[in-house]
């Protein structure tokens, strides 16, 4: 069973977009582009809050 984790290797700010891209096995640039568009369309505040909440909720990948 696949689990969603923050990306350790493909991150720019918190690893949320990289982790989502790893989970769905797609290019992280596409996820980042979707995130930026969603942030702009929600008036910046909504997208930023969603990203911060995702950073808090999504666990870090265990090292073992």
Automatic annotation (TrEMBL):
Name the principal localization, coarsely classed: membrane
Which InterPro entries did the record assign? Phageshock_PspC_N (IPR007168), PspC (IPR052027)
- Keywords in alphabetical order, please: Cell membrane, Membrane, Transmembrane, Transmembrane helix
Q: Which GO terms describe its cellular component?
A: plasma membrane
Subcellular location field: Cell membrane
- What superkingdom does the record give? Bacteria
Q: Does the keyword Membrane apply?
A: yes
Q: Where is the Phage shock protein PspC N-terminal domain?
A: 2-60
Name the membrane topology term: Single-pass membrane protein
Which ranges does the record mark as transmembrane? Answer: 33-58
What Pfam families does the database record attribute to this sequence? PspC
Official protein name in the record: Phage shock protein C (PspC) family protein
Tell me the organism: Acetivibrio thermocellus AD2
